[in-house]
Design goal:
Distance between the termini: 44 Å
CATH superfamily: HAD superfamily/HAD-like
Largest sheet: 6 strands, parallel
Number of domains: 1
């Protein structure tokens, strides 16, 4: 289905709930972050939680890069206490911004994660670039009108994504049951 190009590889409620140590053990070394409604409410400065979060990631050996369609002033203001690499006016979902961010971090698509709150910019651009994408629930409901309109379309895509996820879980459960039934029948013989 053509909608799959917008499907995230994974979803989470909050960027702050992700087990980055597990991802690091899998060989990932770089992580790109959208800012607004992924790390902080739209337009907000870095919070104490965000500053501590980036400090822990960087101490653990992660390369981080903020990738934003915002203007330079907004991204620099947010990054002031974070100290991350950053890319402003990234033109997401264009591949060029994602490739530039990986070059800044010294990573490849196979060793990079993207975390963002929007399907049509963050996730779609990551998928087009071969990067594993994690969709977060938007932090705050207050958003610019163009994003509000995109969210309505995102709900449709997420509906089909969730249906496919549920169907996949049912298929796996049925497969495990058939395997267990087959083993039981073999033991009876």
């Amino acid at each position: 289905m053509w909608l799959e190009q917008f499907y995230p590889d994974e979803c989470t409620e909050s960027v702050y709930q992700i087990d980055f140590a597990a991802w690091y053990q899998k060989g990932y070394r770089g992580v790109m972050f959208d800012i607004d409604n992924t790390l902080v409410p739209h337009g907000a400065d870095a919070t104490k939680e965000a500053v501590e979060f980036f400090g822990k990631l960087q101490k653990a050996g992660w390369k981080t890069c903020l990738i934003s369609n915002n203007k330079e002033a907004r991204v620099k203001r947010f990054n002031q206490e974070i100290g991350s690499l950053f890319l402003f006016d990234a033109h997401k979902p264009s591949r060029a911004g994602y490739q530039k961010a990986m070059k800044l971090m010294g990573t490849t698509p196979e060793t990079t994660l993207l975390i963002g709150d929007q399907l049509f910019t963050d996730v779609y651009g990551a998928k087009r670039s071969g990067i594993y994408s994690i969709l977060t629930t938007p932090i705050h409901k207050k958003e610019e009108i163009q994003i509000v309109l995109k969210r309505r379309l995102e709900r449709i895509v997420l509906h089909f994504y969730q249906k496919e996820q549920q169907a996949g879980k049912r298929n796996k459960a049925e497969q495990r049951k058939r395997q267990a039934d087959g083993e039981t029948k073999r033991k009876r013989r």
